[in-house]
Protein 1
Amino acid sequence: MTTAATTERQSAASYGFADLPDLLSLMTGAEKHGAAATSTLDVLWVLYDRVLRVSPDTVDAPDRDRFLLSKGHGPMAYYAVLAAKGFLPADLLTGFGTYDSPLGHHPDRLLVPGAEIGSGSLGHGLPLAVGTALGLRARGLTDPAVWVLLGDAEFDEGSNHEAVAYAGAAGLERLHTVVIDNASATHGWRGGIAARFEAEGWSAETVDGRDHEALYRAFTAPHPGRPHAVIARVEPKNA
Amino acid sequence: MDTVETMRDRFIDITAGLLDTDPRLAVVLADISAAGFADAAVRHPHRVINVGIREQLLIGAAGGLALAGLRPVAHTFASFLVERPFEQVKLDLGHQGVGAVLVSASGSYDWPAGGRTHMAPGDVALLDTLPGWNVHVPGHPDEAEALLRHAAAAGDSLQYVRLSVHSNAYALPVEPGRFLTVRQGNGPVVLAVGPMLDAVLMATEGLDVTVLYAATVRPFDAAGLRAALGGVADVVLVEPYLAGTSANAAHDALAHLPHRVLALGVPREEHRHYGTIPEHLAAYGLDAAGLRRRITDFLDHGRTA
């Protein structure tokens, strides 16, 4: 397969956003991918390419930024970005979901290089991120940022709302949430998702989840004294 | 009665002290016992964390603290620490490969007037479905202190310490992972767990049995149980939580022998009465009279079989 031969010859440093579809193809066997498979792709790319201060050399550094993939469903985009950034070799992607592969249909932090948490059951990442932000603060590590990615349907889980309310009250400034909104929540969110965060004292912004400049601006917007949420809207799942 | 120090009082005292000396330790609360930690919270505002009445977050935040390199101690009533956020216990601790100390209060029957909602007789059985958990069931505040100090210092392991207002008159020199011989006989072995010891000693007065004591039930001291056996491999378990919780562990320990196990503890059926701890223990057959009747029945059947 030409894409595999191509990717094996490339070094991680040479991958760009345009190479991600080929990396996805190593896992899916398909040449084209629908919106569902790529709903997180732009957000993940902008974070790992321009925002997160973590690299394959610093995956164990105490002062690295943390990215927690809470929405563990459909992790191909995550694995593709980790491969593109050199956290894992691209040739691992072809084994996706097979017995001896570290890359499952939900990620396991004990198996995937660079993965901060294992996820799959929804609603665990944000509470874990709250604890991570508290722990870094308790260790005097006030610089690292903690990022967690959720989906709008995952936001149904009540555990998220425990975490949103507490993090706002505690003013966890180093905590950042990005919610991929592809309108897949069965009952929707009347009044919008950002309003839930804002009501609890977060800084929150809703942007086009395919617009890299808009995402970058939202990700890097100042939010003194408050945690920050970015709602990234992409094509509706059932459109 | 109000002036008697409980295991929970001791937990708060010694944990506040450990926060002063161990910079890795962090206490996570969900309102329960928060007043007791108020002074410690002033001294260590970033390591005494009260998330409010949010038990999924209690365990999730403990997991996150551990991921960030701390040693979390999470505490509330057993029903809200183990049962309500059980998936968080499974996924946010063990599955992430991190450890924690979970310290419960109220146990199976500590507040009978509070009814079923505040009773968690199934907590130890639930933890038995997960790998890696160490389970301590102290029978006295001094034992609680020793086991809490051990649990806090035990690396990044998974430790559950089950505190109760029900306790024995005297503390024993407990060691994690080892059963103690309290009374030596030639007949069957009666294993008393935590607060059950005093009633077991009364119930077996004059019987030719060996009484073992366990303040740590996981790991289960299989070698200690086998070493205590007399001529027959007859074992009685007396546990202050769901009856039969340690039956599998006892059967495993005796797998190479013809053996009998009588597993006594809190019944599975809901007991829709309020009242006091002694009334509940009597109703469960876990007071001295009930234990003696059931243990002697078991021994008599062994002789005629």
Protein 2
Amino acid sequence: MDLLNALVAVLNYIIVPATAYGAQLALGALGVTLIYGILRFSNFAHGDTMAFGTALTILVTWGLQGMGISAGPLPTALLALPFGIALTAAFMLATDRVVYRYYRRVRAAPVVLTMVSAGVMFVMNGLTRVLIGVDEIRFADGARFVISPQEFKAWTGLAEPLALRSTQVITVVTAALVVVWLFWFLAKTRTGKSMRAFSDNEDLALLSGIDPNRVVAVTWILAAALTTIAGTLYGLDKTFKAFNYFQLLLPIFAAAVVGGLGSPIGAIAGGFVIAYSEVAVTYAWKKVATYIVPGWEADSLMQLLSTEYKFAVSFTILIIVLLFKPTGLFKGKSV
Amino acid sequence: MSTHQPKAARGGALRAPLFFTIIALLIAIEGMTRGWNGALGILNMGLISAVIALGLNLQWGYAGLFNSGVVGFVALGGLAPVLVAMPPTPGAFAGGGWGILIALCIAVATVVAAVWLNHNLKGKARAVAIIVTLIAGFFLYRAVFDPAVAVIEKINPSAQGNLGGLGLPTLIAWPVGAVLAAGAAWVVGKTALGLRSDYLAIATLGIGEIIVAVLRNEEWLARGVLNVNGIPRPWPVPYEIDLQANADFIARAAGMGLDPVTASTITVKLLWTALFALVLIGLLLLAQLALKSPWGRMMRAIRDNEIAAAAMGKNVTRRHLQIFVLGAAVMGLGGAMMISLDGQMTPSGYNPLRYTFLIWVMVIVGGSGNNWGSVLGGLLIWYLWIKAEVWGPTLMGLITAHLSDGAVKQHLVDSAAHMRLIVMGLVLLLVLRFSPRGLLPER
């Protein structure tokens, strides 16, 4: 019984939240990796693009709610998501046209493009604040739980609760659908194939008649979709606050680098590696230990690092991978 | 990284004096229209920004290193006035100070041991040994560290609860701030330099976040989010209250037709200005000498073509590490100066947009690789940053004047203060696009 309780505690506090978080990071890292593979720079504006896309989605959500439209048990934000993606994609394409295209034409060094992306980051950060403010916003509606803690306790008679929030299920399902679709797109469609060719060898791809502008445009649209979905899922799961999205930049980059920059499958693996380590290292294990070793009361919380240091976890993993395996787990682009 | 362009910037030798005259005029106009107190306030922070920008210019302008963790080095420098200049907390050092020092030594020893194992073992044994060392070291560290912290945080928690300082003069804290930041930079540089430039950017982004997180959470160090107040001012700068109580000073102020309150605030601000200007001039002199020396030429040669420089026998990674540490030291100095000026340490105020990317805007706009450009950028961008907060709502008020009052108008006016972020982004993008070498291009 105690072992079961320990298992449920691990499930409730680690596996379930970390899986949802990992799915969000994976989507974010996929965007970073796509941009890195095709456009060849680290996009510092990624976190703020997530915030921007989410802000637009929230605005549309409010509009839909105002008109009395809802998705029943599902959050209204899912209905608003396509609009959010379309608006963000339009913004990204415009940004590319006005800002990034010039640097591609003059073949600027990647580090210059990274600098430019910092400028874009400023603008998007400001726009998000102007659009929706700096406060914390909850916009999840619909059913709250798939498994509620009280019901779980009543069913099983265990002391430990297990909560499975609907936003967590939605996150994982949505992320899985998006990833399956993205891999199908990259592997089977003509555009997807040309993107991979462009990423592998730009000159060869150009020689074989691939239209670079089309590849770049599709990349931005995909990146807009991925960031908006990741941001909205993160906001549904937790809350929306623009500054938190900026801070997500570090775990997302870490996920992309750990998996291997430029490798989509690596981005997903990296997202989960980062998420599980972050949650496991910052979780207070005392309760689980008490269940597993009966009759023993730990005198500390058995927490390796306090929650505020979760960024240190992604950073440490990042450094370890950079030092020992700079191409990442899945052979991304090397140094 | 500015590409070399033979054509000199328009204006030639008069270009820099012209821009600095414009800054002086802007400050003067501010002083005459809105009062000298505010104007000198902008100037003082502008001078500190110029110092930090000089540090970033060493890294980016001289060597092309992308440091996106400026905020961390500035914050670490800001820790120095707390640790050096604050009065010691009675009993803190005896109670837990040694424990913390021993714990930190254990941490360092663990890392050194892991690095040694990494160099001297091979294959599976290496991995196992490193992991075992790190885990054992971590638990040993926590076992010594946690009780020591608990002791310190119990001492008078409403006002102190931290290690306190050494009670030394604040001016000593400034170089100490530089040393703290340089130490952190050495660790980061040792691990991340030599990898591709993007990786340095990502690694420094991380270290910046972590340093700020440490300052926010380690209450024994600088009271975390509880803030440290009343950090003593450095030697020549008096307190306004003392001046106002000084009969001699009041008489002299009256002689100039000023009331004591205004006279004291302006005197204090002017002394700050003089102090900061002195530091800035010293740094500028050193930076210029370094830039024109064989060392500076070597740095720029490495920046412009690493492979060629390596072929000429230059150790690129070591030189990068050297300048990365130097640049961070200057940033730390700036951070320490800023905390002395504020008189309080508020770790939650270290926002990367303000302390990393705004500094970037200063360096790029001023002209990367040009020290005078960084100083110009620091002063000009700081001025814009402050004024954009004021101008935004005014502008928005004009734009929305014809709208009827309502939620939309209210929202627009309220959010107009955030417009300065957009303004800074646009300034950066416009300069990068149309004048990538900045206002004062590198020669």
